[in-house]
Amino acid sequence: MKTQPFGLIRNRKALVGVAIIAFILLVAIAAPLLTPYDPGARVGRPHQAPSLAHWLGTTRIGQDVFTRLIYGARTSLAVGFGAGLLITIVGTALGILAGYRGGKVDEVISFFTNMVLVVPNLPLLLVLAAFIGQANPWVIALILGGTSWAWGARVTRAETLSVKQKDYVKSAEMMGEPRWRIMTFEIFPNLISIVGINFIGSVIFAIITQATLEFLGLGDPKVVSWGTMLYAAQKASALSVGAWWDILTPCFALAFLGIGLSLLNFAVDEIANPRLRTGNRLGRWSALIRSGEGRL
Amino acid sequence: MAFLLRRLCFYLAAFVAAATINFFLPRLMPGDPVQIMFSSAGAELPPESLQALKLTFGFVDGPLWQQYLTYLGSIFSGDLGRSIKYFPLPVSTVLGNALVWTVGLMGTATIISFTLGTFLGILAAWRRGSLFDVIVSVGAIFATSVPAVVTSLIVVFFFGFTLNWFPTGYAADPALDPAFTLQYLGSVLYHGILPMLTLCTVLTGGFAVTMRNNMINLLGEDYIVMARAKGLSDGHVMLWYAARNALLPTVSSLAIAIGTVLGGSLVTEVVFNYPGLGNILYQAILARDYPVIQGQLLIMTATMLVANFIVDVSYVLLDPRLKRA
């Protein structure tokens, strides 16, 4: 069959994705072992080109770009996974609640979900962040969690509607199991693939959005992350003075991590959902990412 | 018709929700928000601007609900207050000028990438598993998982600063007077190419993937087999039997994508110093110009709702079942 080589390539993609994430994670954890410098300290002359002493050059104020890159990975990963988790928890809980309870509960939750979906996410985040002032990464993670759950809730609700018709849910109801038990132990485990895809999609979204907010000057410039690196480099007009290493380093890091996570999304889907071997898989994934303006 | 009316009511509610967020945010600030905004903007403001600022956020004498109604009233009459940075220009003027550029950029980029993405998706699905399909699918993953900030910066670095092919800022040559002359329009086009290229790179992949998957789901249907059995040409079956039906869900995905387009154009404008909403917003954030920051949320929400409504209308036109309902 003609589709065979394509399936193989997909599996390889998943492998590559896991490898990329693992690599970035390891580098982030081992950051102090990999560099002699402090990410905030001035350790060289301003805007030095890459050399043996400074592998990726220095910033406008003489900080080591490589050091900031690997320390910044910690912030970007932590916020990404933290906010992703938050978004997923809120979205899944609301989705299951709306789908299982139905009636008034469903109407209220669905109304708010649809409303959050049509209010543009990034402008809303910008307004919130502007009022908070220079938001540290955890505040950003928190407001991401509060504003970006809508797509997950919608998808989870739709899936819950079909799961709740299953016999095992009906029999649990007959036996008089409490509602919260049915929702957490009968329905939730059967939504795990949707939840997993939602989670990775949300992580991608959170990492991109955090970097964007910080790039636009809404982050705390003292924090070292890929977003604040972009902000500082852009503010120092790194491109027009020819210091490409200053601005392209966080760019490629973000692109690399984004690609890795997207590839990982295939893996989760394939492991959790062997039935889903149709092209639909890609569609759901891309819709999830794009939902909350996953890619800004 | 009932469908469109229902959507309109919903959009109205969504807009009021955005306005409500705007109303309550300054009231959640500790201390006197107007004083804080006033002082954070620097001392060069005339005293009468303090009064204008108070009115912008609906700080009138009276209970909260009265303030809220006053605020909603002024929003719906198109009065968004006055900008701090460009005082005494009204926010609606500042944003209105920028909106033209943003909608132009967004609209063109959406049309180009939607058309291109749809055709790539059709071809990829038609030759599922071929090298072309793999290239389109993998390319779409790469293009869609890279943030717009990154794409913009790489494009501006490569085509703007390194190759020097295109300008790296402004919507047109600042030396030219804005007029409907060939020279000016040419300059607008020339300056628009890089931001457009960025947005299209960011958007095309998503449309291609959606279309490809819709097509693949349809290709097994009986009427496709039947069309082939009738001996129709490949191209005819592909475009008039499969693609026509696959287009419907793609159009509804367009509504979701509008938020992406907005966010993307916001960032792209900042990088390319393009005088649209995104750039105005960026300047407003740097200057802590709160009335403009709040105004842009309303304008962007309105833009998104209008775009959503256009998609709704085209959906009704494309799907005859909805027309009868």
From TrEMBL, chain A:
Residues 73-265 form the ABC transmembrane type-1 domain. One of its GO terms (molecular function) is dipeptide transmembrane transporter activity. Gene3D superfamilies: MetI-like. InterPro entries: BP-dependent_transpt_permease (IPR050366), MetI-like (IPR000515), MetI-like_sf (IPR035906), OppC_N (IPR025966). GO terms for biological process: protein transport. Keywords: Cell membrane, Membrane, Peptide transport, Protein transport, Transmembrane, Transmembrane helix, Transport. It is found in: Cell membrane. It is a multi-pass membrane protein. The chain crosses the membrane at residues 14-34, 77-99, 111-132, 138-156, 187-208, 247-268. Belongs to the binding-protein-dependent transport system permease family. This is ABC transporter permease. The lineage of its organism: Bacteria, Pseudomonadati, Pseudomonadota, Alphaproteobacteria, Hyphomicrobiales.
UniProtKB/TrEMBL annotation, chain B:
It is a multi-pass membrane protein. Residues 99-311 form the ABC transmembrane type-1 domain. The keyword Nucleotidyltransferase does not apply. It is found in: Cell membrane. GO terms for cellular component: plasma membrane. The keyword Transmembrane applies. InterPro entries: BPD_transp_1_N, MetI-like, MetI-like_sf. The chain crosses the membrane at residues 7-25, 98-126, 138-161, 188-209, 246-267, 297-318. Pfam families: BPD_transp_1, BPD_transp_1_N. GO terms for biological process: transmembrane transport. Keywords: Cell membrane, Membrane, Transmembrane, Transmembrane helix, Transport. Belongs to the binding-protein-dependent transport system permease family. This is ABC transporter permease. It comes from Ensifer oleiphilus. The lineage of its organism: Bacteria, Pseudomonadati, Pseudomonadota, Alphaproteobacteria, Hyphomicrobiales.
